[in-house]
Amino acid sequence: MALQPFIARMYTVTLFGIVLLPGTVQASGQPWDMPGWVYGVEYLAPTKPGRDLSTVNFDLFYAFPKPNRTLQKSHLSLYTGLTASRVTGTITQLTGSYEEGTLKNTTFESSANGIGPVFLLRFDALHQGRSRFFLDASHGILFFDRPFPTGGDRYNGLRRLGASLSYRMDATYTLNIGYRWMHGSNGKGVNPRNPAYEGRGANIQLGVAY
């Protein structure tokens, strides 16, 4: 399946940043002054036809100091943590039989709550004074309180890509505002047992120093 144009653009921007931008990052002989903890919330509006699902994600990330000191020369930082997700809305699926002439679109209520472990890889593309511009890629698996979306499983892989602007307010706190694309899927291919869903939207994060 070909990548959707938006996803392709996101990968292009990420690749451009990784290959061409490291020389523009403000040099520092010290380990990254990145936050040790990151708290975030995001709202993602639905983008796929038949998936009228609005998503609110709550994130908690922690950056391990030792691995990130190793990654600093590549302008990368690695976080692990938890994402809690509240999804509300409906999905529309084909039901019935073509042979029997009963094939039709049916709309199902598909709200659910999920939580699970997530890893976040952050590329520090630009750094000027207190401000930064970075690219994010994250992946995790969320476990829901019902089969979600309707017709699927109680688990979904969650992939997110995005970019953010960051401002260090003082020695302790950093404020990030960004844009996110998300894809949720149980990995069982394109069929009624895998009613994948997607969203795009904005997020806000608060970073707290170690």
What would the keywords be for this entry?
210 residues, mainly beta, Porin, 2 helices, 60% strand
Summarize the structure.
With 210 residues, this protein is mainly beta. Helix content is 11%, strand content 60%. The protein starts with a helix and ends with a strand.
Question: What is the topological layout?
Answer:
Elements (H helix, E strand, L loop, with lengths): L4 H16 L16 E10 L4 E13 L1 H7 L4 E20 L8 E6 L2 E17 L2 E18 L4 E16 L4 E13 L11 E12 L2
Antiparallel strand pairs: 1-2, 1-9, 2-3, 3-4, 3-5, 5-6, 6-7, 7-8, 8-9
For the sheet with most strands, the description reads:
8 strands, antiparallel, barrel
Q: Tally the helices.
A: 2
The side-by-side strand order for the widest beta sheet comes to 1-2-3-5-6-7-8-9
What CATH architecture would you give?
A: Beta Barrel
Shape by Cα distribution: elongated
- Show unreliable segments: 14-32
Distance between the termini: 43 Å
Order of helices and strands: HEEHEEEEEEE
Number of domains: 1
Helix content: 10-25%
